[in-house]
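Thread amino acids onto this structure.
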């Protein structure tokens, strides 16, 4: 992928488009999807939309009992336990999925955390990088044979405009020298984009294409660990927690770009791209404000993507993908 490919395609959809708009008329009967975070917020909208179109949806969930209750009325959906921040749990979930299906058409990496207090997981990994990137990285590597078997699978990774906060901190990715919750979030979101870039490079000969995306500004459970006052100070909500910003999307609008990435024929033969508002995003200038959209060049840099991939393999012990 080169930055020249990172240009809008003229999609018929927009920032205002909903999940229903994108999925109208689509028949996914016979397809299987794995949707992390598929029982709340954007993930729930995604699960419902894919299942309504006929797909069989597997939802790995850190809180499986809550997930089963939430998804009880969704036909063709099953829940399995998985904690993205627990490497052993991810491997166990992947083994269960590998034993239950013979192909995987869609892997939707939607689950995530944002601006959390400092946490150390596993061998001392920074918690946001672990949950947002390393967990999804491990899951994708362990499910790769199923993706390759589909003969045209897509992997869709929810990143964020927050990736502009920082490149990968190559000298201190786990914040050993001092924690900043927003830089940790930004790094994890940059890692999401780089992961999609390298997965697409490794997988395209097997028909596996990968995309990262910014779903837009949406108030969901993602903000659950942010103090209310901080959200008020940012102009997101009022003192009662009600959304007041005029540029926020609904959950259905927020899910639309991921569903477009998963299903649009405009993306056939393409991959390694960063998407927003149901189209390919432009490359943004280094000083461009976050709300102006686009993707930073460092987040789609092929060399950085390969470097992060190697570091992630070394850290997680995930099964390597060979070209």
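Threaded sequence (323 positions):
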């Amino acid at each position: 992928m080169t930055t020249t490919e990172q240009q809008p395609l003229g999609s018929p959809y927009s920032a205002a488009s909903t999940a229903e708009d994108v999925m109208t008329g689509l028949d996914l009967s016979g397809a299987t999807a794995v949707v992390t975070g598929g029982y709340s917020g954007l993930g729930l909208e995604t699960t419902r939309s894919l299942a309504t179109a006929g797909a069989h949806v597997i939802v790995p969930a850190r809180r499986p009992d809550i997930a089963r209750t939430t998804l009880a009325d969704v036909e063709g959906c099953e829940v399995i336990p998985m904690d993205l921040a627990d490497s052993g749990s991810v491997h166990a979930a992947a083994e269960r999925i590998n034993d239950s299906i013979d192909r995987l058409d869609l892997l939707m990496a939607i689950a995530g955390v944002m601006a959390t207090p400092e946490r150390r997981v596993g061998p001392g990994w920074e918690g946001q990088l672990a949950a947002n990137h390393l967990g999804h990285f491990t899951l994708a590597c362990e499910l790769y044979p199923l993706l390759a078997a589909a003969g045209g699978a897509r992997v869709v990774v929810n990143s964020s405009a927050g990736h502009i906060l920082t490149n990968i901190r190559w000298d201190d990715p786990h914040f050993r020298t001092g924690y900043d919750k927003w830089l940790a979030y930004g790094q994890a979101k940059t890692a999401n984009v780089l992961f999609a870039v390298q997965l697409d490079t490794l997988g395209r000969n097997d028909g596996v294409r990968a995309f990262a995306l910014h779903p837009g500004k949406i108030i969901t459970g993602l903000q659950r660990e942010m103090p209310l006052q901080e959200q008020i100070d940012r102009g997101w909500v009022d003192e009662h927690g009600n959304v007041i910003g005029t540029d926020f999307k609904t959950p259905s609008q927020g899910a639309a770009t991921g569903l477009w990435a998963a299903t649009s024929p405009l993306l056939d033969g393409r991959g390694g791209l960063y998407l927003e508002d149901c189209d390919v995003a432009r490359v943004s200038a280094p000083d461009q404000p976050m709300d102006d959209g686009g993707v930073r060049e460092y987040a789609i840099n092929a060399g950085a993507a390969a470097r992060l991939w190697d570091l992630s393999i070394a850290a997680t012990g995930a099964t390597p993908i060979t070209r």
